[in-house]
Specification:
The structure is a single chain. This protein is of the alpha+beta class. It folds into 3 domains: 64 residues, Roll (Structural Genomics Hypothetical 15.5 Kd Protein In mrcA-pckA Intergenic Region, Chain A); 88 residues, Alpha-Beta Plaits; 78 residues, Pseudouridine synthase, CATH 3.30.2350. It is built from 6 helices and 17 strands. Strands 7, 8, 9, 10, 13, 14, 15, 16 and 17 form a 9-stranded mixed beta sheet that branches. A hairpin with an 8-residue loop joins strand 8 and strand 9. The longest helix is centred in the N-terminal third of the chain and has 10 residues. The protein is globular, with a radius of gyration of 21 Å.
Length: 249
């Protein structure tokens, strides 16, 4: 049933929870007259209970299919989001000239604009960065309840000579605090003698570098190689490709 009382939740929030659209996208569809609840045209601000039947106009689905998502191999020296301190945002690299020539995907026909980063990658880090116009993907990757894994290869050196103590490795995996808050468990292992492999399910600011600092390690290089089941692979540095239809996070 629908309701105008404080009971239930906003229709746009319910649609986002069901994976139908992002909350912003849902509001746009409602405003355009593309959403019906129990057969009746929805209005902005409508609150609903969990048992309602939500119908989406096919025009909304067609519009959604035109939302673009690209994968960029971000170089060092570019910020993920807005330009800052004279550094350019990584999105400036998403041009037709920088598209990987081995990309066989057929992306949407729209212009390469309105792309926003779904997650951060520090200015001095490189690797896989997702840029999208699709609010559903952004919510999957950076929503409050996101559990998508991110994998990194991290080159390190010991501040003090000698091997890393077992207790330091255990602390990296679970038990460290950042800004007074406990970190979620992480998977950390040696990829080779001077490189660690981190798999995280969260993304605090400069998290890996700060984790390493706490156990006496200095990070000399950091590269993100996977987000969910999507891998960086052979994508060249500074180039991008479309997210393929058979890929999902």
């Amino acid at each position: 049933m629908t309701t105008s009382s404080p009971e239930g939740e906003r229709l746009s929030k319910r649609m986002a929870a069901l994976g139908l659209a992002s909350r912003r996208e849902a509001d746009e569809w409602i405003e355009a007259g593309w959403v019906r609840v129990n057969g009746k045209l929805a209005v902005l601000g409508l609150r609903v209970l969990p048992d309602v039947r939500i119908e989406i106009d096919p025009r909304a689905r067609r519009e959604q299919l035109q939302r673009m998502t690209v994968l960029l191999h971000k170089p060092i020296g570019y910020v993920s989001g807005q330009a800052e301190d004279g550094y350019e945002p990584a999105v400036v690299l998403v041009t037709q000239q920088n598209r990987w020539n081995e990309d066989r995907s057929h992306g949407p026909t729209g212009a390469l604009r309105g792309l926003a980063p779904a997650g951060r990658l520090d200015i001095d880090s490189t690797g896989l960065l997702v840029l999208t116009q699709d609010g559903r993907i952004a919510r999957t990757l950076i929503g409050e309840d996101s559990t998508v894994e991110k994998e990194y290869l991290v080159r390190v050196r010991r501040v003090q000579p000698g091997p890393l103590p077992a207790e330091a490795m255990a602390a990296l995996q679970h038990g460290l605090l950042l800004d007074g808050k406990p970190l979620k468990p992480a998977k950390v292992s040696w990829a080779n003698e001077d490189q660690l492999r981190f798999v995280l399910r969260e993304g605090r600011k400069r998290q890996i570098r700060r984790m390493c600092e706490q156990v006496g390690l200095e990070v000399t290089g950091l590269k993100r190689v996977r987000i969910g089941s999507v891998v960086l692979g052979k994508l060249p540095l500074g180039q991008w490709r479309y997210l393929r239809g058979d890929e999902s996070f």
